[in-house]
Amino acid sequence: xxxxxxxxxxxxxxxxxxxxxxxxxxxxxxxxxxxxxxxxxxxxxxxxxxxxxxxxxxxxxxxxxxxxxxxxxxxxxxxxxxxxxxxxxxxxxxxxxxxxxxxxxxxxxxxxxxxxxxxxxxxxxxxxxxxxxxxxxxxxxxxxxxxxxxxxxxxxxxxxxxxxxxxxxxxxxxxxxxxxxxxxxxxxxxxxxxxxxxxxxxxxxxxxxxxxxxxxxxxxxxxxxxxxxxxxxxxxxxx
Length: 239
Fold this sequence. Notes:
Elements: E1 2-7, E2 10-14, H1 22-31, E3 38-42, H2 48-55, E4 61-66, H3 69-82, E5 87-91, E6 106-111, H4 127-133, H5 140-150, E7 151-161, H6 166-175, E8 178-187, E9 196-203, E10 210-211, E11 215-216, E12 218-219, E13 222-223, H7 225-231
Parallel strand pairs: 3-4, 3-6, 4-5, 6-7, 8-10, 8-11
Antiparallel strand pairs: 1-2, 7-9, 8-9, 12-13
């Protein structure tokens, strides 16, 4: 267990089983929370996405939903040590939130879900890490339809995933009436295929998808200027 500094006086407690990667940082940035937003982060893990947002002054409130007791303990310890009053961590299965969270009233839902379908590819022998990477405790359908139930009309759902599952993700969002409104591809460097896709859907919205410029992680063998800006405070002293 260790503290990872996030800048602005913020940090996050992480462990070998529950840490975070670039995709979580990019999703927090892509979601662009507003000061009035009420956020639910599904599968919050150590709480990194709400913490990055709150570090920058938004949203108004946040709830992190997490099924792992170890991850919940890490996130709750961080919240307590930082004295954050508008971020709570709910130990629950995102597939079973009835009576635990109100539906139809939140303005923003985020999720960095397991990327691999259960049974697809080699599965990590460590159970906690397997749950984070494979759809063992929830499927992509579970995530999308839970987000739809939580959001109010015009509320936003922001998610990151692997490009090879983009078609499935968009189909599920259409079915759940979370109309895809914004999409961004992430490439390691120019000339390479994307390794991540960021998608924003809006509940009950009309069709109309905006594809924003590709984000390149590296330029000339180092972090691109945009990545430096995104990482700015978080990587303070580590660039």
